[in-house]
Design brief:
The structure holds two protein chains of two kinds. Chain A is mostly beta strands. Helices cover 0% and strands 50% of the residues of chain A. Chain A is built from no helices and eleven strands. The N and C termini of chain A lie far apart (40 Å). Classes of the chains: A mainly beta, B mainly beta. Chains A and B meet through strand 5 and strand 10 of A and strand 7 and strand 12 of B.
């Protein structure tokens, strides 16, 4: 069965960076894009971009360009998202989500990683 | 950018009754080339990640009970739960994957009356 297991919670200071991992199993990692979506406490969902694990190609919305980097390590079926120059409003649960493959649509989601940015 | 607006923000329905959630996009999410609406619905329960319920506006994801149905086209969409069960208490989000940046509605909180 498809599983996405993310790394544990992080506490970071403003201005620093955080890197979250997402280990995939139960399917061919390079066969499906991987999305990243975040959710601030008590708020809605915000799409951060996707990575093509096969080519390494990425698409980021303008809001995050210059601050977000998505990478992957195909040898261990793991995707990563790194967010730099953290601010307090980056405090959120960060989710990885596998693309369904029919359109750019997440189907299976990881359990989420809480990133808290606080001085 | 496409803005997704859901209504209502919250909804209380009696067990066994129908629940209806609406979603409006600021631009059409219909691709004329394949006549598909790039609109999905997710269910999120507290402390859990979202779960995909419906895609292409009206196609139910495998394993989703048939009391959940999606309809609509272009800019106006609806998620209907035909007979509310206790386990349906959750926040529901519509999502457009027509064009980047992909976006979600603000969510509709569904409770039992």
């Amino acid at each position: 069965q498809v599983q996405l297991v993310q790394s544990g919670a992080e506490v970071k200071k403003p201005g620093t960076s955080v890197k979250v991992s997402c280990k995939a199993s139960g399917y061919t990692f390079t066969g499906h894009y991987m999305h990243w979506v975040r959710q601030a406490p008590g708020q809605g969902l915000e799409w951060m971009g996707w990575i093509n694990p096969n080519s390494g190609g990425t698409v980021y919305p303008q809001k995050f360009q210059g601050r977000v980097t998505m990478t992957r390590d195909t040898s261990i079926s793991t995707a990563y998202v790194e967010l730099s120059r953290l601010r307090s409003d980056d405090t959120a649960v960060y989710y990885c989500a596998r693309d369904q493959g029919l359109g750019y649509l997440p189907d299976y989601w990881g359990q989420g990683t809480l990133v808290t940015v606080s001085s | 950018d496409i803005v997704m607006t859901q209504s209502p923000d919250s909804l209380a329905v009696s067990l066994g009754e129908r629940a209806t959630i609406n979603c409006k996009s600021s631009q059409s999410v219909l691709y004329s080339s394949n006549n598909k609406n790039y609109l999905a619905w997710y269910q999120q329960k507290p402390g859990q990640p979202p779960k995909l319920l419906v895609y292409w506006a009206s196609t139910r994801e495998s394993g989703v009970p048939d009391r959940f149905s999606g309809s609509g086209s272009g800019t106006d969409f609806t998620l209907t739960i035909s007979s509310l069960q206790a386990e349906d208490v959750a926040v529901y989000y519509c999502h457009q994957y027509h064009s980047t940046p992909y976006s979600f509605g603000q969510g509709t909180k569904l409770e039992i009356k």
